[in-house]
Prior knowledge:
Strand order of the largest sheet: 1-11-10-9-8-7-6
Number of domains: 1
CATH architecture: Alpha-Beta Barrel
Number of helices: 12
Number of strands: 11
Largest sheet: 7 strands, parallel
CATH class: Alpha Beta
Strand content: 5-15%
Low-confidence stretches: none
CATH topology: TIM Barrel
Helix content: 40-55%
Amino acid sequence: MRIQTEPIGSIPRPVELILAIKAHAAGQLNDRDLGHLYDNAVAETIKKFESTGSPVISDGEQSKPSFATYPIQGMQNLSPDGVVIPFADGHTRQLPKLKSGPFRYQVYADVYVQKAKQLTSLPVKQAVISVSAISLLYPGEGIEGYSRDEFIKDLVNEAAADIRKSLDSGAYCVQIDFTEARLSLKLDPSGGLLRSFIDLNNLVLNRFTIEERKKIGVHSCPGGDHDSTHSADIGYAGLLPLLFQLNAGNFYLEFAGEKNKRQVLTTIKQYMKPGQVIFLGVTDVLKPRIETPEEIRDVILEAAEIIPLDQLGTTDDCGFSPFADDDSTSREIAFEKIRSRVEGTKLAEQVVNQKKHFFHS
């Protein structure tokens, strides 16, 4: 019996790259020189990823401005005064706001897949942003001559194309980052906002066949940025009944940071559907301590008591640095945590297979 293990996506950028991005924004560095640094960071990240023994890797999102805003990088019809997302430690992130239509992605994630596949023979996973997150760009007051319905139609087409292009470029799987799921329950405890997000994402997912959806997953966490979160106080009990209504094959869930893990596992078991693979986070990306492979093994074995093994996988709680300027975790710690996840998953596999052999002999 094999237990699947995959990363979430982002890896902390090298310090020199973070400084270069800031210099470029200030007009002190040209596009070509920044591009060279992006290329170097991607190549180094993939090499380090390979050294962890991870069977599936990513490019670490080294050249994305953030996990959420890559599709609109360079878009001119935006203003900076969009939705504000507050984090528990007091800092905020603010999305831009769309000023006019039509809406079109400026960057599709397949460019990252193609670049990474040139540098490795390992399967490459690609993360994309959810259609619901991008929907927040449309202003509440509306846009003259471009209705919200027109925007949503364009947006769904673009989000589906983003996934399709990544699959066609040879991505091993595509992960939809849906970190606003828990946040939506904080903003609207009735679940109405979350239901609208689920419906919107299903409009995209329904563009794909059942077989294709086996290669498409959804990541949910309470938001991880500068070692803080925006919705860790929102539990899984209200989220999972709706989240598992998404027509995706895989679900990547924050788990290591949860206090009552047994309760989370029983909630997952209650609401998961046949055929859905649940990848549990077994490394806490907000804490610098590196989990031992043995600790991770024990977490997996406990989960296997509740979740069927053929529907169980492992991952990290969240991306290590979803935003390009997040230097709260070092690259070294991130890769060591990944290495522990890979080794701990293998240890759990050995125990499971030994038990299986014992009972069959």
